[in-house]
Structure formats: C-alpha cells, structure tokens
Amino acid sequence: MSSALPSYEQAAAIVAAHAAKWNRTTPSIERVELRHAAGRVLAHSVHADRDQPPFSRSTRDGYACRSAEASRHAFLSVEGSTHAGEAPAGPLSHGVAWEIMTGAPVPTGADSVMMIEHVEVVDRQVRLLPPRTVGAGENIVARGAQAQKGDELLPAGTMLAPAHIALAASCGYASIDVCARPRVAILTTGDELVPAEAEPGPGQIRNSNAPMLAALIAAAGGDPWVLPAAADTAASLDAALGKAAKADLLLISGGVSAGKFDLVEPALARLGARFHFTGVRIQSGKPLVFGELPRDGASRSSTPDVSRVLPFFGLPGNPISTAVTFQLFAAPVLAALAGRHESGPRFALAYLARDTDKHGKQGLTRFLPARCDFNPPHGRPPQVALVPWHGSGDLPAFARSNCFLVVPEDVSRLEAGAIVRILLP
Ligand code: AMP
Ligand code: MG
Asked: What is the rounded average pLDDT of the residues 205-215?
C-alpha cells in the first residue's frame, strides 16, 4: 500500500513545484516603517544609494600615512587630525602623517593607517616601531569596496532579518515596501475538541492545534485566520470549508486518516479539489493531503495561479504530526505565497548522543522529536538525542524537544556517534 505513496523527497518536490508556480507575481504591497519590518518580505530590491563605504574609512585609531614612507621608520610630522564625522582631509604632503580615528575618512594621498599600538610619538612626530612595516591598504576600507552606488544589495523576496534592516537603513530607507502577509485559514476538525478556555467533558480534549498553527503561521510570515472548529460531519465540514474561500492558503487539521469519521477528503472532493497527493511515506504525518480547490468562477482546467485556486493541506490531527507536516510542506507553500525567494525546511548535521530504538518503522522517513545541544562544552559539535515519547500526540515530550531527528527510510536504527540530520524549527 504505502509504496504507492510518494517518499518524503518526492512529496517535497511536488510541493516545491507548485509553490514556485504560486509564488505571487503581483503581490499586494504595504509600506512599513523600517523598525516594524523584521520578518516581513521585501517587495522591491534594495539598492545602494551611494558607495559603501562612502569614503575610504580608517578601521583603526592611529596615523594615516604613505606606507612606503612609514615602513622606513623615520619620524613623520603629524600635520593634523580627523575624527569620525569630519570631511576627508588632504592631499597629504610627502613625509608627513595624519592622526585619524576609527570610522574617520582617510586623507587623500594616504594609503594606509599605522595603528596607535604600533607607533612611537614624540613632540608631534610619529614613527612606526621597527621591525614592523605597513602595507598599502592596511587598516583602510577603500571607498566602494563593500558596494558601489546602484548595486542591488537585497533582492525582492528577502525575509527581513536584523542585518537586512541595518543594510536598508544604511541605504536611506526609513520605511520600506513589503509584501502583504498571506491569509492562512486554520480549520481544525474533531468532535472531541473544545477551545482552550472551555472545561473538557468526558472524552473531550482541548484544541491545541489551532493556536499552535497560528503561531507557526505567524512565525513563517503569514496572517493566521482561525475558523471555528468543525465537527466530524459532512454538513459541518461543508459549511466550514465554504467560509475558508477568502484565504490564500487553507490548513485543515485532523480527519484525513482512514477512519470512519475522517471526512475531510470527501468534503474537499465535493468542492472539486485536485489532490496532488493523499499520503507521504513519513512518520509522523503519513496521511498528509495536499491539493488545490478551484475558486468561485474559475474552471477546473484553468491555469492554476493563486487567484484561481486555493491551495490546501489536510494535516493529520496528532499535534506532532501537524507540526512536522506544517514545517516540511505547508511552510514552503506559505513562503512562496508570502513572496519569499527562499523557502524549504532547514536541516543541519549533529552527532547522535544516544542510540535510537531498535524497532523503528522502515519504509518511512522518520522525523522524531529530539533535543539538540547546540552549545556543548569545549566547542564540540552539536549533540542530539531523541526525546522519549508516547507517540505523536505527546505534547509534553514535544515541548521538551527543539528539533526533529531525521531517520532515513532505509534505516531502522541509528547508533550513538553517528552524524545525523536534524530538521530545525
Ligand atoms: P485525526 O487526524 O482527526 O484522526 O486525529 C488524530 C489525533 O489527533 C486524535 O487523537 C485527535 O484527538 C487529535 N487531534 C485532532 N485534532 C486536534 C487538535 N486540533 N488539537 C489537539 N489534538 C487534536
Ligand atoms: Mg479527527
């Protein structure tokens, strides 16, 4: 049965191909103040408005000089001084030096800076202490060495991190155009669910997926839109799906396994869904469903761009499965809809600190909650170990994890000391 399902890699490739198609060509744009732009996606590329640095800049406190003269160790008379914020001096006469502070423009004519720690100063005369020499360009960043006026420094589609914000500020952006956040509808399903604030009756549990998905969506650059939870009836699902039509992406949790009350797929099919896959060879999250719904007025055969179709995922309801499948598959689609040029999950390598169990399921790529020590003593590489758990509904175990250990499909057990792949949050 399961060999008919795509592998993790195959399913990821299917998702990536659709995501690339849906990457909005004309996203709606908002202007935000730069201090509110962290985590937003750049709508237009950022260009250098002038050379960077805009003048040849000293990287040290010391004395600007001609390197050939300074390296002869004769005393040079100190003709003047420039500190950060002053205009460049010069041209520097021959046989002289110029006092300079870090960040200040180097006088024209000087080609290097002697560090204050490396000189002897006597009566406004300075010399480089032998046997030290200084080379041309030393302790100077030349004008335009980092970027030239007009260079593209950040491409459209960059998700803005602090370094990008600093760069945009250096180019004169006080506010910046970003893509509108895609609206992601969250539809949780299950007769057993009550909201977090309610007192559960016998057999009921609190709906933890709705707030978890909202947090995941917000962190991935989306605008979460929590719909009222649906009951496990065709009528309830039909009504709930009808409400989701205005979303840019629809995430349904629960109801996609093979049980008697797993009614999500038939409900989607009634709305004319195209399914790209209805299961993946992974643990946790094998029953994952991915597809697209036609939007009102669009015919099923039309070119599938996001104005014509509503992409959806049916995420298995167990909270760890929901989180894994979101991260592996829904997040890349969300990233594309958000206008990001980069998407895809982030993996890293770590050393396995303890053997995994002997009874792992083969034939499925496993993503298992694990805890990685990213800062082990003595500069050792990251060390990861599985978090003991009671299956993919174990929220306390999940909360103790900080990554997922990836066990390849053909591996039943990994041994301590192995270099393993982890999926980062
Ligand atoms: P399902 O995918 O609907 O078969 O659900 C699998 C398991 O996840 C069941 O134990 C459900 O009770 C649980 N579950 C489903 N939806 C949620 C939710 N929104 N919050 C917490 N647990 C859920
Ligand atoms: Mg259910």
From this structure: 98
Q: What is the span of the domain harbouring residue 150? A: 30-51+146-179
Residue ID of nearest Cα to ligand 1 atom 23? 317
Pair (322, 207) in one structural domain = yes
415 in the same domain as 359: yes
C-alpha distances in Å from residue 64, one per residue of 55, 72, 130, 214: 14, 15, 17, 56
Rg (CA), the chain: 30
| Within-domain flag for 162 | yes
**Ligand in closest contact with the CA of 188:** 1
Among 312, 337, 362, the domain boundary falls at 337
8 A C-beta contact, residue 420 and residue 384: yes
From the CA of 199, how far away is ligand 1's center (Å)?
A: 17
Q: Give the ligand whose atoms come closest to the C-alpha of residue 284.
A: 1
Stated pTM of the model: 0.92
Please, what is the Cα angle at 302 between 298 and 307, to 5 degrees? 55
Q: Per residue in 344-382, pLDDT tens? A: 899 999 999 999 876 677 799 999 999 999 999 999 999
* Cα–Cα distance, 79 to 98 (Å, whole number): 6
**Proximal ligand: closest to the CA of 192:** 1
Q: What is the CATH number of the domain that holds 74?
A: 2.170.190.11
List residues, by chain if needed, whose CB lies under 5 Å from ion ligand 2.
190, 254-255, 317
Ligand 1 binding site (Cβ under 6 Å of any ligand atom): 188, 190, 192-193, 205, 207-210, 253-257, 259, 262, 316-319, 393
Q: What is the CATH number of the domain that holds 297?
A: 3.40.980.10
| Tens-place pLDDT, residues 118-135 | 999 999 999 999 999 999
**pLDDT band, residue 343 (cuts 50/70/90):** confident
State whether 377 and 235 are in the same domain: no
